[in-house]
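Structure ticket #2291
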Amino acid sequence: MKLHHVGIATTDLDSAQARYELLGYRLEALELLPDQGVRAAMLKSGADRIELLEPTAPQTPVGRFLEKRGPGVHHLAFATTDIAAALRRLQASGARLVDEEPRPGFGGHLVAFVHPSWAGGVLVELVEAEP
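Resolution: structure written out below.
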């Protein structure tokens, strides 16, 4: 799998976007994801992507993350062409999954999260993407 994007939690998506644009990133897409409780912006520079996540309420997963840890890296996302097979492989190896089944995510991609305890404290997202 290849790195798909780095997810960054922020309290102010617009300000964060402006800072990353100064580094050469450009807005690829902006979405409100009500089921995840975030407003998200995907920024791209060449082949690299950064996903900025602003919670829509304090009691959302990203809202709780910000309260506990403050702004910063939230997750690493890895691209796979078969998310169901990747989840089965991880689960069979003993990985603790947040999502046992993929769900719709940013840009209409199927996504699933692996608990941070599996990756040394890092939340891992799997993103089903075309090869």
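Closing remark: The chain has a mean pLDDT of 96.
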